Amino acid sequence: MRVYNFNGGPAAISQSVLERVANETLDWNGTGMSIMENSHRAKEVVDMANKVNQDIKELLGLSEEWKVLFCQGGASLQFAMVALNFAPNGAPCDYINTGLWSTKAFLEAKLCGAGARLAASSEADAFTYIPSEFDFSKDSNYVYLTSNNTVRGTQWSAFPKNAPAPLIADFSSDFLSRTVDFSPFALVFAGAQKNLGPAGLTIVLVRENFLQKGAKNIPHMLDYHTYLEHESMYNTPPVHAIYVSGLVLDWLKNSIGGLKAIEKINRAKAADLYAAIDDSFGFYRGTARKDSRSLMNVTFRLPSEELEKNFLSLAKKEGMVGLNGHRSVGGIRASLYNAVPVEAVMALISFMKEFQKKNG
Predict the structure, then answer these.
(1) CA atoms of 177 and 249, how far apart (whole Å)
(2) If we measure between CA atoms, which residue out of 59, 337, 53, 76 comes closest to residue 189?
(3) Which one of the listed residues 28, 194, 223, 269 is annotated catalytic?
(4) Which of 15, 120, 149, 345 gets the highest tally of CB atoms within 10 A of its CB?
(5) Among the options 55, 94, 170, 174, which is catalytic?
(6) Catalytic site residue 101?
(7) Is 286 helix (H, G, I), strand (E, B) or coil?
(8) Is residue 316 annotated as part of the catalytic site, yes or no?
(9) 194 in catalytic set
(10) Nearest to 301, CA basis, from 313, 280, 288, 285
(11) Binning pLDDT at 50, 70 and 90, where does residue 300 land?
(12) 3-class SS at 301?
């Protein structure tokens, strides 16, 4: 029996996609081999990767000035790559700190020798909100932010409009979950393991004119130019992860109906779950300010840690897994990524109400 998967990542993948992967495991695309056995330079694999490239741009509505790069090392490697490429030798750059992952990115930039400074931070209030006032540097090379914060359950609903430099963003946990105006951005990246596919692949979207401004005397595997010039095949890319991501893109485009359709579904799922929290008379307490709440990661607490442990244990017995909060903060977290079905959220809400009746 398949469970309802609320994991923060690696996260749920549509069952129809998983079934197709299973059916094609021994013989992919008539090659007589698994996709995992095929050469990454075989025509069939190159064609597959090119289609994934184009499907991403089509779904996001990106023009040809945007380049899609397939990288490895997760979003965490991008923390260093961004700084090394676009803020070398102490060059100024601004960071907006809204949680664990933007904190890590800021510290990594400083470690790489960038002139990184904080333009805003919600750390003093336990990262419970998205800042709305910023102290930008006029000579900044870029402004960095994290679009959705998986640990604290906050998300940008509107991005800064008065930034003096292009925006760079980590979109790992809400990539392809909603429509986004990318005009203020020069580079965005996302680990695949939330809404796109399995872990091991990181998508980087970068404007070509911005990329050309990047540093050039850095190690090849840390240089975005390398990925562009070699069409992401300077070394062996994560072929299987790219392949599965392509199937997810096909599901999102042809079964769901694109970003507007999935955004509508995601907003409805989140609204129902937040309503269950808000209507619990304080038994369940959301941890993010209402104006900063995430559509992807709903975080909340119960009256005691003992009740939280009991909640998680009983939920697992009912076939709902991955509800534990991030290890750094505890509590409960329900991740409502694209492939988490509506019925999973309804089952969780029903369980929450019954649990409150027995323990409230």
Answers:
(1) 12
(2) 76
(3) 194
(4) 149
(5) 170
(6) yes
(7) strand
(8) no
(9) yes
(10) 285
(11) very high
(12) strand
